[in-house]
Amino acid sequence: MLDELAHAGPEHLDRDFVAGYERKQGYPDPAEDLAVLAGHGLDATSTVVDLGAGTGRFALAAARRFGQVTAVDISPAMLEWLRRRAAAAGVTNLTIVQAGFLSYEHTGPPADGVHTRNALHQLPDFWKAVALDRIGRILRPGGVLRLHDLVYDFQPSEADAVFERWLAHAAEDPTLGYTRADLAEHIRTEHSTFRWLLEPMLTAAGFDILTADFAGSLYGAYTCRRC
């Protein structure tokens, strides 16, 4: 198996980086994702798995809404932060697991929902396909996958123009967002894939794509149902 810890990005293993992670990410609001899952029938009896949970912004909110939540991340630094936050919040229905897409072993009944944000791009395409197949086997038939990630919605011939527009809008302050250097490093060293490659992977893994919303040809939000 691929060593996911080695592919996690060294910054995600750094305690100092993790302490400022949400500020750099812009404090993404989990409300829309919670509403999507609830709109597909998930409720206080449902089980949700958050893969690549990071500091737990979604997982902690989900634990207040759903019956049982499992937060999975490969980074010890991320999980250390998440454990402290969960303890401070007094959350009792949250299980925290150090694992990755390729090593998490789900126990108990199949999950009703899976959420993942900004993590799948750490895997090269072959391993993405394996990961999506494993996610499909975590979920019950009719279960819901909510996926956010940097996904390229353009043709290879358009790459220079799309990337230049992206880099032009990078943050100046590295504590408040991703700088031009950060984004260029992502393009060079991480594994964001084309939309027209990712969507067949989802289909092959047994998912119906219900919605696919894109921002700036670079970022996709998917809602998928397990067949």
What's the SSE blueprint?
Blueprint: H1 15-19, H2 21-25, H3 31-39, E1 47-51, H4 57-63, E2 68-73, H5 76-89, E3 94-98, E4 111-117, H6 125-138, E5 139-150, H7 159-168, H8 180-189, H9 195-204, E6 207-215, E7 219-226
Parallel strand pairs: 1-2, 1-4, 2-3, 4-5
Antiparallel strand pairs: 5-7, 6-7
Helix pairs in contact: 6-9
What does this protein look like?
This protein is an alpha/beta fold and 227 residues long. It contains 9 helices and 7 strands. It has helices at 15-19, 21-25, 31-39, 57-63, 76-89, 125-138, 159-168, 180-189, 195-204, and strands spanning 47-51, 68-73, 94-98, 111-117, 139-150, 207-215, 219-226. Strands 3-2-1-4-5-7-6 form a 7-stranded mixed beta sheet, with helices on both faces. The protein is globular. The relative contact order is 0.14. The mean pLDDT is 96.
Summarize the model shown:
This protein is of the alpha/beta class and 227 residues long.
- How much beta, percentage-wise? 15-25%
- Biggest sheet details: 7 strands, mixed
Helix content range of the residues, please?
Answer: 25-40%
How would you spell out the order of helices and strands?
HHHEHEHEEHEHHHEE
Number of helices: 9
Alpha carbon gap, first and last residue: 27 Å
Low-confidence stretches: none
User: Care to count the β-strands?
Assistant: 7
The largest sheet has its strands arranged as 3-2-1-4-5-7-6
Structural class: alpha/beta
Shape: globular
Overall pLDDT metric: 96
The whole-angstrom Rg is: 17 Å
Descriptors for this entry?
single chain, 227 residues, seven-stranded mixed β-sheet
